[in-house]
Amino acid sequence: MPSQRIKYARVHLSRKQHIALLARPNWRRLRRTDPNVLARPFTVPRAVLRSRASRRIRVMAQPKYVTKKYDPAAAPPPYPRIHPKTLAARSTKRIVDLALPKRRVLLETMKLAATKNMKATVSDLLVKVRKSRYQRYRVFCNRRQEREARKKRKRMAKLRRALTKPEEWQRHMRVLERLAAPKVAAKPKRRKPAKRKKWRPIDLERIYLMASPIVRRVPKLKEPLEVPRRALIYRITKRIEILATRKKRPEIPLRIPGAVSPAAAKAIASERITALAKPAQRPTGRETDLREDAFTVSPMALKASCSKRLKRLAKPKTYPKPKFKRLRTALLKR
Question: By the 8 A CB rule, do 84 and 75 touch?
Fold first, then answer.
């Protein structure tokens, strides 16, 4: 158990020795043996020779199908099997509507239909096409386009009535052409090529001067009793003069210690405060918590037994002695 090892270390070792021991690497965990690397790889162990295959392994060991000779009837089909749910699936109304042929194709086939059965099937398809949701949606779209065209014609009629002169109409068309023209992106301005700097000889004295640290002068100490010139010439502003004036606060009378405030005298106690103000009613013989003989032990305390946990906590802790103290005690014993 790790708790017992820690207890042993605390009793027999110092803190420094315990930390040094824990800091050492565990070579059993670092150098683990590889189970796949065997000393004799081609030898069969005895446990494998004695073992018996379970029912699960025997079922899994059987081949899927055995073909001694090629048999096209017994061989698996070249295409995958279709699931029975897929075969029994029903197409939705949306797929049925999308699968219907176009109306103009049906009208052309109606003209070329030779038999009555063919005409009947084509007419049924035409009825389905007319009742499909997409045909209705097409009718709605056409009606909406017609309404938009009607509104446009009304706007153009109002515009023609407003622009009677040919000059006004031409100006209106020019504005429309300007607004309808595509936006031309502004070409980026060509930057002038940067001029090559002339070659100059390196001035080492200037470089050394710039590299040297700045020598700052120590400021003079100000005299504490000397008034600066600016403070003598300074004129106070109206704002600072207003802020400098002392505010007149209302006079608050001093509170007399022990006196009852008028608010407390006028206060009316609530039901809860009156209930709390009443003294506690205790049974006869127990008016106070004090006992006549304070040094008597109750009989329940004499009968009580100490638990294992309390006994364990009651034991004093033992700490290991330092090295120099142990050497000193050993030398004194000698």
Answer: no
Residue pointed to by tokens 């045909």: 135
Q: What are the tens digits of pLDDT across the range 305-324? A: 889 999 998 998 887 766 65
pLDDT of the residue at 212? 86
Phi, psi of 154 (to 5 degrees): -65, -40
User: What digits encode the pLDDT tens for the residues 58-87?
Assistant: 888 877 765 566 666 666 666 677 888 888
Distance CA 24, CA 30 (A): 12
Is there a contact between 125 and 106 (Cβ–Cβ < 8 Å)? yes
Report helix, strand or coil for 201. Answer: coil
Q: Could you give the CA distance from residue 149 to residue 152 in angstroms, rounded to a whole number?
A: 5
pLDDT at 137 over 80: yes
Rounded to whole angstroms, how far apart are CA atoms 60 and 62? 6
Say if residues 42 and 54 touch (Cβ distance below 8 Å): no
The answer to which of 28-32, 107-111, 126-130 has the lowest mean pLDDT is: 28-32
Residue 255 parent element (H or E): none
Q: Which phi and psi angles does 147 have, rounded to 5°? A: -65, -40
Of 14, 2, 9, 8, which Cα lies nearest the Cα of 326? Answer: 14
Place of tokens 């002038």: 192
Compute the distance between CA of residue 49 and CA of residue 26 in angstroms, rounded to an integer.
37
Rounded CA gap, 101 and 134, in Å? Answer: 12
Beta carbons of 324 and 332 less than 8 angstroms apart:
no
In this prediction, residues 241-245 reach a mean pLDDT of 90
- DSSP codes, 117-166: HHHHHHHHHHHHHHHSHHHHHHHHHHHHHHHHHHHHHHHHHHHHHH--SH
Q: With beta carbons less than 8 A apart as the criterion, state whether 61 and 53 touch.
A: yes
- Mean pLDDT score across all residues of the chain: 81
What is the distance between the alpha carbons of residues 9 and 21, in angstroms, rounded to a whole number? 10
